[in-house]
Amino acid sequence: MAIMDTGCRALLINGGGGAGKTAVGQAIGRILTDRMLPTAVIDLDALAQYGPAPAHQRGFHDRLKVRNLKAVWATYRAAGARFVLVSGVIETAELREGYTASLTGCDVQMVRLERARVEYDGHAAVEDFTVVNDRKLPKVANEILEIAGWPTS
Q1: Which of the four CATH numbers 3.30.450.20, 2.40.10.10, 3.40.50.300, 3.40.50.720 does domain 9-124 have?
Q2: Rounded Cα distance, 75 and 26, in Å
Q3: Predicted TM-score of the model (pTM)
Q4: What SUPFAM superfamilies does this protein's entry cite (predicted)?
């Protein structure tokens, strides 16, 4: 999959609960850092561990994740990161756009990670591609890197 080269690449790792988003993001991060590529790994859930949400503010935690991602990414980018892996549930095109805007200066792709033997649920596709998480993490991680067109060697 060809993308523009802005000097920095982001991969949004989407999927339902228990799909392995965080574990696969960490596995991809290990692969890239082992290749001496400056990489940040961010779990969206960790960016909104705040409560209680203000009353009558639907989507509060999603907006908080978007704002915090922008701040955390700016810090990682200033430290020299060129790759960023962001794992979390991203259910709408609006959320994808918010996360993409937060990743300033990055070419952003999104993968949907599916649990093994799960039927496609018919959701509105916001991902660029889907990978089934039915093998050892390094194999799933390398498949995602290959499809995304990221460094594989």
Answers
A1: 3.40.50.300
A2: 19
A3: 0.84
A4: P-loop containing nucleoside triphosphate hydrolases
